[in-house]
From TrEMBL:
<dbReference type="GO" id="GO:0033281">
    <property type="term" value="C:TAT protein transport complex"/>
</dbReference>
<keyword id="KW-0812">Transmembrane</keyword>
<keyword id="KW-0653">Protein transport</keyword>
<feature type="transmembrane region" description="Helical">
    <location>
        <begin position="6"/>
        <end position="22"/>
    </location>
</feature>
<feature type="region of interest" description="Disordered">
    <location>
        <begin position="50"/>
        <end position="77"/>
    </location>
</feature>
<comment type="function">
    <text>Part of the twin-arginine translocation (Tat) system that transports large folded proteins containing a characteristic twin-arginine motif in their signal peptide across membranes. TatA could form the protein-conducting channel of the Tat system.</text>
</comment>
<keyword id="KW-1133">Transmembrane helix</keyword>
<protein>
    <recommendedName>
        <fullName>Sec-independent protein translocase protein TatA</fullName>
    </recommendedName>
</protein>
<feature type="compositionally biased region" description="Polar residues">
    <location>
        <begin position="67"/>
        <end position="77"/>
    </location>
</feature>
<comment type="subunit">
    <text>The Tat system comprises two distinct complexes: a TatABC complex, containing multiple copies of TatA, TatB and TatC subunits, and a separate TatA complex, containing only TatA subunits. Substrates initially bind to the TatABC complex, which probably triggers association of the separate TatA complex to form the active translocon.</text>
</comment>
<dbReference type="InterPro" id="IPR003369">
    <property type="entry name" value="TatA/B/E"/>
</dbReference>
<dbReference type="GO" id="GO:0043953">
    <property type="term" value="P:protein transport by the Tat complex"/>
</dbReference>
<keyword id="KW-0811">Translocation</keyword>
<keyword id="KW-0813">Transport</keyword>
<dbReference type="InterPro" id="IPR006312">
    <property type="entry name" value="TatA/E"/>
</dbReference>
<keyword id="KW-1003">Cell membrane</keyword>
<dbReference type="GO" id="GO:0008320">
    <property type="term" value="F:protein transmembrane transporter activity"/>
</dbReference>
Amino acid sequence: MAGLSIWHVVIFAIVVILLFGTSKLKNLGKDVGGAVKDFKKSIKEDEVTTSALNEPRTLEHQGNPADVNSTAKTHSG
């Protein structure tokens, strides 16, 4: 039979625990969890950066100080 039964999985888990110990497996789990969390964070940051770059910019978003000063002078005087 090519498939794994529940007993194969249980025996494999026992052997792994005996070889590495629970403390090393616990640390490995924390490391893998931290790596996944960092990966998800970087993907979200990349999506925000990409979406911000794809949005069209208007004159208000560019914030050119020369334009603001020239319009203020024409309205004030």
